[in-house]
Amino acid sequence: MTARTTPGPRDRLLDAAQELTYRQGVGVGVDTLLKTANVARRSLYEHFGGKDGLVAEVLRRSAAEDAAAYRATMAAAGEDPTARLLAVFDTLASVVGQADFRGCRYLAADLALTDPDHPGHAVTRAYRAEVTALFEAELARLGHPRPAAAADQLLLIIDGIMAAGATRPASDPAAAGRELALLILTPAG
């Protein structure tokens, strides 16, 4: 029995689309995707039903990876809810500081996918709900008086960090966002 060392067409399409849709946006052409993945057009339709299905699956895959990264960041920060939430903002500083940083994949997809029924929108909504729930649980453990509202505010700050990181990287948006997050975590009594 030999072990498969080369990914199949489905995985090559996912890998290529995950990279290209982040660098170039979801409007990247099908021909570019197929060429980069080194697959025939038929593979796209067999595995994903078309480009919309591929985009939704890439968003799903990325969302799972990113949600896991949030959990790992928070877990590495220990048990204190404040430290766990602030660790997210500390990590974002290194994320937006990367040379190849292009902003938030989910915000970019939502803005580019003009069809409100595109399956990608359901994925981005579910991802944001999952991250918000992570924050809300920490805020509840912290004893925050409005954990749901505060979790929404933290996500709004993260959206701003990601947008500013792509458009105004010299502004150090993660540090500014961390300061705002700290205000939310320690509400005036």
Verbal overview:
The chain is built from nine helices and no strands. The chain is mainly α. The protein is elongated, with a radius of gyration of 19 Å. The mean pLDDT is 94. This is TetR family transcriptional regulator. InterPro entries: Homeodomain-like_sf, HTH_TetR, Tet_transcr_reg_TetR-rel_C_sf. Keywords: DNA-binding, Transcription, Transcription regulation.
Largest sheet: none
Tell me, briefly, the overall form.
elongated
Count the E strands: 0
In the CATH scheme, what's the topology name of the domain at 60-185?
Answer: Tetracycline Repressor, domain 2
**Low-pLDDT sequence parts:** none
CATH architecture of the domain at 60-185: Orthogonal Bundle
Number of helical runs?
A: 9
Strand content: under 5%
The secondary structure category is mainly alpha
> Percent range for helical residues?
over 70%
* Radius of gyration over C-alpha positions, nearest whole angstrom: 19 Å
Task: Report the CATH superfamily of the domain at 60-185.
Answer: Tetracycline Repressor, domain 2
CATH class annotation of the domain at 60-185: Mainly Alpha
User: Topology as H/E string?
Assistant: HHHHHHHHH
Determine the mean pLDDT. 94
C-alpha end-to-end distance = 67 Å
InterPro entries: Homeodomain-like_sf, HTH_TetR, Tet_transcr_reg_TetR-rel_C_sf
Keywords: DNA-binding, Transcription, Transcription regulation
Protein name: TetR family transcriptional regulator
GO molecular function: DNA binding
